[in-house]
Every structure is written in C-alpha cells, then in structure tokens.
Specification:
There is one protein chain. By secondary structure, this protein is mainly beta. Helices cover 0% and strands 53% of the residues. It contains no helices and 11 strands. The strands form 2 sheets. Strands 2, 4, 5, 6, 9, 10 and 11 form a 7-stranded mixed sheet that branches. Strands 1-3-8-7 form a 4-stranded antiparallel sheet, with no helix packed on it. A hairpin with a 4-residue loop joins strand 7 and strand 8.
Length: 126
C-alpha cells in the first residue's frame, strides 16, 4: 500500500526558507496530481499548492504566490515545496496528498485528494 511521507519541516526564523519533500513509499505518484495542504493549531486545513502529474501546471493559494513554489521530479518520484520568506503565520503541519483522479488538471480542493501523508511540522519564529 502506498504511503506518502513528508519531510523537511523544522524550526526556522522569520524570513528564512525551507524545502519540504513528499515521496510515495511503497509505490509511485503515477499520473496523479499532488497537492500540499497545511493546518495550523485551531484552524481548518487549507490548501497551499498543487501540481499536475506532468508538472507543467501549478496553482497556489493566492496569499502564498511568490513565496512558495511547488515542483516535482517524476524520474525521482518526488514532489517538493520550496517555501521562502517564511512568516510566523506559516507555522502549521504541512501535508502532501495525491489526487484521486489520474491525469486531469490541478485543484486546490482537498476533497479531490484521496491519499494523505502524516504531515511535517513547520514552525516559524518571529
């Protein structure tokens, strides 16, 4: 059974950068899009970014455009989330997820994702 595993989280000062990694242990992403989501304490989960299976199409939460970049290396079966100019409000558990539908476009709707990782904690200090 495929399990998504996130890594790369940690504690960083405001203004710093982190790169998160998501890998499908026991399988592959196949021809599925992948998304990143986050959930801060006491808040609902929100979308961060999504990427198509080809990697050619991406989408972002509007407020994160310009600071976060999602990418994927299909030859290495890895999806990345490069986060820059981090702010304390970016503190959250970050999850990657594989879209239920193969191929397709990108979507930030969490209901379109069926396979979720356990998350990696990102903490940004002020």
């Amino acid at each position: 059974q495929v399990q998504l595993v996130e890594s790369g989280g940690g504690l960083v000062e405001a203004g710093g950068s982190l790169r998160l990694t998501c890998v499908p242990r026991g399988g592959s992403f196949g021809r599925h899009g992948v998304g990143w989501f986050r959930q801060a304490p006491g808040k609902e989960r929100e979308p961060v970014a999504a990427i198509s299976y080809s990697g050619l199409t991406t989408d972002y939460l509007d407020s994160l455009k310009g600071r976060f970049i999602i990418s994927r290396d299909n030859s290495d079966n890895t999806v990345y989330l490069q986060m820059g100019n981090l702010k304390p409000e970016d503190t959250a558990v970050y999850y990657c997820a594989r879209r239920r539908e193969a191929i397709g476009g990108v979507t930030l709707q969490s209901g379109q994702y069926e396979l979720w990782g356990q998350g990696t904690q990102v903490t940004v200090s002020s």
